[in-house]
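Bug report (template v2)

What were you trying to do?
Predict the complex of my protein with glutamine.

What happened?
Run completed; filing so the output is reviewed.

Input:
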Amino acid sequence: MNPESQSIPSTRTALASGETTAEVLTREALGRIQAHDNSINAFISLCADRALDKARQIDQRIASGESPEAIGPLAGVPVALKDNICTDFGSTTCASKYLEQFESPYSATATQRLEQAGAIILGKANLDEFAMGSTGEFSASAPTRNPWDTSRVPGGSSSGSAAAVSAGFVPVALGSDTGGSVRLPASMCGIVGFKPTYGRISRSGLVAYASSLDQIGTLSRSVADTAAVYQSIAGPDTNDSTCIDMPTGDMLAELEKPLEGLKIAIPDQARSDVIDPATRLVFGMSCKVLADMGAELIDVDLAHAELAIAAYYTIATAEASSNLARYDGVRYGYRAKLEDSDNLEALYTKSRTEALGPEVQRRIMLGTHVLRAGYADELYINAQRVRRLVKSDYDAIFKVIGAHAVATPTALGPAWRIGEKQDDPTDVYQQDIMTVGANLAGLPAISVPAGYVPAGDHTLPVGIQFVGDALSESVLLRVAHQFEQNAGMSGRVAPVTG
Ligand code: GLN
C-alpha cells in the first residue's frame, strides 16, 4: 500500500477485502525503513521478526472469518514507539548510553493497549536522550534528520517518531510531550502531533522526565488517525494514580461537525515578531481559513506567556534531577569500572559522567540548583506560582470568554539546520515558547500542518497549534480536523531528499 494513502480506515478496508494482509503491510513498512532509514535515523531498534509474527496472527484471525474491526480498531497498522516507552521485548534505551543495554521487564500500558487494538509495533524510535531537547540532536544513538531536508533537524524530542511518520515509514507513532516534544517535531515534519490532557493516557511504562508535565502523545498524518489511536490507548489505568478515572468518549463521533458557532482565541503572542515572518504569514492565512469556516476569532492575551519558558525549565529540570537520581550505576544500566581505591560516591559520579550526555547533565545541574536550600524559594516556588498564573490565563479564556480553542503557530519557524543552535542552549529553550503553556496548565494541544515556507530551492512545513480546555479533546480534535479538511496541508509524505 502506498504510504501516502495508508490511513487507519484504509488499512481496515484493505484487510477486510483481502486486497492486502497485515504481513504484507509489515513487510512493506520494514522495506521502506531498510531502504531509507540510514539517511534519517528515525529508528534505534527494530523488532522485525516479532512484528511479522504478530502480523501473521492477525492474518490468521482474518482468514478464519474475524473482521479486522472485531480484531481491533488498529488491526494491522504498523506503528513506531518512542524509545522511552517500555516494551517487554527488545530494548528501551531512551537514546542514552546509560540504558543502551536496558531491557524492560514490562510493557507500558500504552504499548499493551496498542497491541490489544491490533497495531503492529515495528520498533523503537529515536529521541533526544531521556526526551530532553527540541531537535533530536541529543541522541546517543545518532541525530535524526528531517525527511523534508536531511541537513535539518526534525524537531524533538520525539524526533524519530515524527520523522518515521513524515517519511512514510509508518502511518502512526507514539511520542511523549513534556514541553512540546510531540507538537514541535510534528510541526517541523509536516504531520499531526497530539498531546491530550495531563492524565488521559497512562504514564505507566513511560520513562519519567518531569512527572507533573509528562504525557504520551500521538504522531500521524491526519487528525482522524490521531483520534483513532488516542481513543485506543487513553483511559483509566490502575498502574498510574495520576491517570484520569473517566471514560475517554468517542472521538470520531464529533469530528465532522462544522466549526460554526465555535470561538477560537488568538493570543497576541501568535503575532509576535519573534516568529519568523513566513511562518506568521502562514498563521494569518490559517486564521482566515478558520474564519471562512464560520469560527469566531477573538483576540486574547496570555499575560504570563513570557514567563512560561523560565517556569517550565525550572520545574522540568527540578523534576528531572530527582527522577534521574535512580540512574546511580547500581540499580539500572551502565556501571563504571572502578579502581580498588574508589568508593560508592565515585561509582555514582563516574557512572553518571561517563554514560549521561551533555544536555542531560546540564538539566540535572540546573534542577539541582533550583531545588537547593536558599534558592528553592526564589526559583522553584516562584516557578510554581507562574505555573498557576499560566493556568489562570487559560481558565479565563476558556471559562470566562468561552473560547473552544486557543490558536498559535506551533513553533517560531520551520526546522533549522543540524548543529545551527548547538552552542546556544537557551536559544533552543526559547523555541518551546508556544508549546510549554499547555503542559504547565495540563491542557490538551494539537499541531496540524498549516503550510509550507520557502527554504532555498524547496519548502519546509510549519504547523498551527490548537490548545483546548482540560478534558475537551473531542472539541479540540473537531477543530483540528475541520481546519485540516479545509486547509488541505496534511497527509503529505516527505520526499526524503538530501
Ligand atoms: N524541549 C523541551 C525540553 O527539552 C520539551 C521536551 C519534551 O517535551 N519532552 O524539555
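What did the reviewer find?
The CA atoms of residues 224 and 481 lie 7 Å apart. The longest strand covers residues 445-455.
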